[in-house]
Amino acid sequence: MEESNLKNNNNQAALNPFASNSQYKTGYANVDNMTAQGNEILNNSVNAQTQAIDQGTQTNINELQRQSEKAEAETLKNNKGLYQEYQKQINPFGVGQEALAGQGLAHSGIAESTRTSIYNNYQKNITESMNNLRNVKADYNAKMAEVRSSGDIAKAEALSNAYLQQLSMIQNAYSLAQGEKEFEWQKSTDERNFNYQKERDSVSDRQWLDQFNYQKERDQVADNQWQQQFNLSKSSGSSSGRSKSSSGTTGELTVTDGNPYSNSIGSSILDTIRKMGESTVENRNPFSKLDAIRKIGYEVTK
Question: What is the pTM for the complete model shown?
Answer without folding.
Answer: 0.47
